[in-house]
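Hi F.,

I've been meaning to write this up properly since the lab meeting, where we talked about keeping a consistent format for the predictions we share between groups. The idea is simple: the sequence comes first, exactly as it goes in, then the structure tokens exactly as they come out, then a line or two of notes. No screenshots and no reformatting. I'm using this chain as the first example so we have something concrete to point to.
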Amino acid sequence: MASPPTGTVTFLFTDIEGSTKLWEDNAPAMQAALARHDELLRRAIEERGGYVFKTIGDAFCCAFPSALHALEAVLAAQPALLSEGWEKTGPLRVRMALHTGSADERRGDYFGPPVNRVARLLSAGHGGQVLLSSATQELVRDTLPEGARLRDLGERRLKDLFRPERVFQLIAPELPTSFPPLKTLDARINNLPAQPTPLVGRERELKEVCDLLRGEGVRLLTLTGPGGIGKTRLGLQVAAELLDEFEDGVFFAALAPITDPSLVASAIAEPLGVVEAGDQPLEEGLKGYLRGKELLLLLDNFEQVLGAAPLVGELLSACPKLKVLATSRSVLRVYGEQEYPVPPLELPDHKRLPSVERLTQYEAVRLFIERAKAASPDFSVTNENAPAVAEICVRLDGLPLAIELAAARIKLLTPRAMLERLGSRLKLVTGGARNLPERQRTLRSTIEWSHALLEEGERVLFARLAVFSGGCTLEAIETVCDAEDDLPVDALEGVSSLLDKSLLRQEEGPESEPRFVMLETIHEYARERLQASGEAEEIRRLHAEYFLGLAEEAAPELKGPDQLQWHRRLDAEHGNMRTALSWTLRQEKDELTLRLAGALWRFWWTQGYDSEGRRWLEGALAMEGRGSIESRAMALAGVGALASHQGDFDRAEEALEEGLELLVGKVTERSEAKLHLLLTLGAVALEREDHDKATRLFEESLSLSREEGNGWGLARSVMSLATVIHEQGDLERATQLFEEGIDLFRERGDKLHLAYCLINLGLTVYSRGDLGRAAKLTEEGVGLLRELGVGADTAVGLCNLGWMALSQNDLNKATVYYEESLRLAWDTGMEPVVLTTLEGYACVAGAQGEAQRAARLWGAAQTIQETKDIPRDAYWLTEADSRISVVRSNLGEEVWEEAWRKGRVITLDEAVSYALEEATGG
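Output, unedited:
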């Protein structure tokens, strides 16, 4: 029998797919089959030098000193298992995974990240499939046995949430080759963030929390505990484990960057892609989006926005398939909430320490070892240092964050020296707040101790970094934290040191730019240090000025060829923008607030933050100092744009006219702000069908753009004029202007407005009878909107394509367009598009001979139009009415009325579900 290999080891893990059901169906037959399965596997493994170090049920865990020998064992075992009779149980489909790495071997067992990694790789596969990690593939690719090859399945995110893994499938003559998609995080929609390190331990807690959430009676589960206990990491792993069980995915909403409960709806809506529509509150849009979804929502760090707890209750009441997993230091106190207090990591009894081998099986000690080895690869637990390691973990009460902070110091201090310093520090903090839990006081002392070990320059940088919210870039750190060239340490070196000491974490931001973030517990302590430094207000001023500069730099770029990148950058910095705006309002920095909010409103408009943007802008305008005329006018333009986007045309008109009046006779009269005021006021007039006023305003914006040489303003004015002229019926002139606008937007690289112009021209060309060109123009516009991720407007373009296909009696194509449009419109709260698409579905049903279905859909659409007071889309009204008139006549009035009345009484979400039944095969 082989001895356990050490050093770099190739692990082979196997298990039988569907073994639980096989045992339930025929336990005696399965017992005999499993014995034969074990015999075949052991022979193939041990004949090639492999070492079976663990079996759990039908699962084998093996180690090989050579990757090639491990591969040869697989090539021997898998065909033997596949060719075996298995008459009484049916085929045993065994999945296998290979991964190579360095793991700790103790008394024949293995510990460390490679073991966790191969287990996760195995869980991604299917019965009969053999998967290899990139590390193993590198070792065997040049020495593959004859007939064998490796299929690259691409980079995949495994459910350990660690870095992505490039996965390969073994292809050989005797092995099956076709399998369903891998069961990785990529298989279902989610936004779970990658984690810098794998989860250590927590097997029991993970199972218990997953089992609770699987139960029908648990809709809201809150993981509670002090800062640093590991609530977030456990919650993320639970979400990853349950991903396959939620048809519509799992989504993570980070609440740490916000403290205002009114912003929680935005924080939830953002990862879901829900945006405000018209005057509908965002909360209602969330309910509409989630109402029919089978989805898990992870709300992280809820303790600082407990005032928003009723919103969670409302969402759960309105959305029967929704489940919420929250992490919080306090319970939410929402009806039906189940609390799960997260315990510390498992600890040994430091008074009666077990052997070194047994000691390293305790979760807290395993975490210390793995994090210490990451900081210093030569570190190992010995008989000499084991008691100190164990006592450190006990003194830190098994708190993961505290242990990670301590382990990060292993390069500087031995475990014995660390224990001595930690012990003395803990004695000094016993006078902390008496109402704090002991573990939280211990964690605080750990952070204080870690902080005390910093050099003076690092301490200054650490405190100043507290000003950022939601992370920051290195450029922001250098600009804000060393604006006066008074930082006692080089910013880059300081950041690197704080990363090494686990006081700072690095994440990947937009365009792969690194971002630096603090865990929230550490962030709280850093804020205290900043406040105690005496320079808090100065650092906050520098922070606000930096992000004002970034916002003003971004504003023109949002209209240019790099608009997508700038939207992503502003989205990443939204927490910092909110922090800056809060400070400027609190300090009554009127000009700074007006300029910052005025620079951001186009971002808010595009991303669907209409209500939030209006609150910031109205707050800025309400300050007594008033600010400069130009900045105030731009803020009023923002209020007008966001209010009109929500359908609040009265407030929009009031703000826009106030802005124009403010500029009359001033030096700044011919300004960027005036251009936006004219364009938006013209759009409001157009909505109110005041074509003369709209034309006058658009012509004035056109003249202003030409005088100022503003190419974007010229293009927007031309497009806006074309829209008015189209509505007035001059199709030839409208076509000329839209084509001119398209050329101008192409020159500028503004894909967003180019898409709008293309779709509008498509409607104009359609009205002129050129259906082929109309569809091509609209498809190009929809393609650009998809690229930019503008879901709501994509729904509009797809709806238009559906009607164009219907007018050519291409019912299959029309149905495909309507389905995607309806899903997008429903998800983004675009109820006018939902209405128009339902009418389209009714027409398709009528054309397919399903007259009663058509009547029911038509009745539902009419109810929605009347109860929601939504005007019908004038472009498609005639086409819809003429088609439905024919269907109604052919069906007969009595039968039509009966089916139509059934449609009149169903709700909006029922109508959407009914329409989509046909598309989904329901």
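Notes:
The chain has a mean pLDDT of 88.
The radius of gyration is 32 Å.

If this format works for you, I'll send the rest the same way.

G.
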